[in-house]
Amino acid sequence: QSALTQPASVSESPGQSITISCTGTSSDVGGYNYVSWYQQHPGKAPKLMIYDVSIRPSGVSNRFSGSKSGNTASLTISGLQAEDEADYYCSSYTTSSTYVFGTGTKVTVL
Amino acid sequence: QLQLQESGPGLVKPSETLSLTCTVSGGSVRSSGDYRVWIRQAPGKGLEWIASINYSGSTYYNPSLKSRVTISVDTSKNQFSLKLTSVTAADTAVYYCAGRKDTAVVPAVDWGQGTLVTVSS
Predict the structure, then answer these.
(1) A31-57 pLDDT, tens per residue?
(2) In a 3-state reduction of DSSP, which class is residue B90?
């Protein structure tokens, strides 16, 4: 299974919004509404931010939102804050009953 | 809340077997509805899902690693383990043990802190 495709980096100023794309195939992203997003700060374990395409776990800011169209999922962060600077990974359930992660996106808050 | 802690050698020689253990606290290693998971991250690289085992003992493996990986549970020690055979430098990574409930169709919800395993002679 190949990694899902994400942009390597995204940069924006505080208070602005960014959208990170995550492109897969009909065997993963396009085939299931089981896309999730993780935030990872340097040296830390990843943290679940979105699951089932658009659902936020308890405690995650409503500035984070997710969506999906066809084989591409997206994570939007609105009102960008310095603490949002991190790596972000998408993930999808696959037809093999396994999971595949995205290539990762480094978000920089200018 | 579930707590997970990885343990094992930090250095493994090429062609040998990498063995890691994850100790579960705050819950049973085989609670109904639970999945136990291994995920790794090579230095400076992305996340890679390795394997999972559920509460009934069913196992799931990354197709690209399946021939070399075994995940298992030791209920007497409240631990689960990962074995990866015939390692090469490409297996150098931070290895995370993790867990989730069967109601959450995600790679993992709870994570250990990770342990770095280097493959080198």
Answers:
(1) 999 999 999 999 999 999 999 999 999
(2) helix
pLDDT digits (tens, 9 = 90+) for A54-92: 999 999 999 999 999 999 999 999 999 999 999 999 999
- CB within 8 Å of chain A, chain B residues 20-79: 45-49, 60-64
pLDDT at B31: 87
Contacts by residues B24-31 (CB-CB < 8 Å, ≥ 24 positions apart): B24/B78, B24/B79, B24/B80, B24/B99, B25/B78, B26/B1, B26/B2, B27/B2, B28/B75, B28/B78, B29/B73, B29/B74, B29/B75, B29/B78, B29/B79, B29/B80, B30/B55, B30/B73, B30/B75, B31/B55
Chain B residues within 8 A of A48 when measuring between CB atoms? 106, 108-109
Assess B106–A contact: CB distance below 8 Å, yes or no: yes
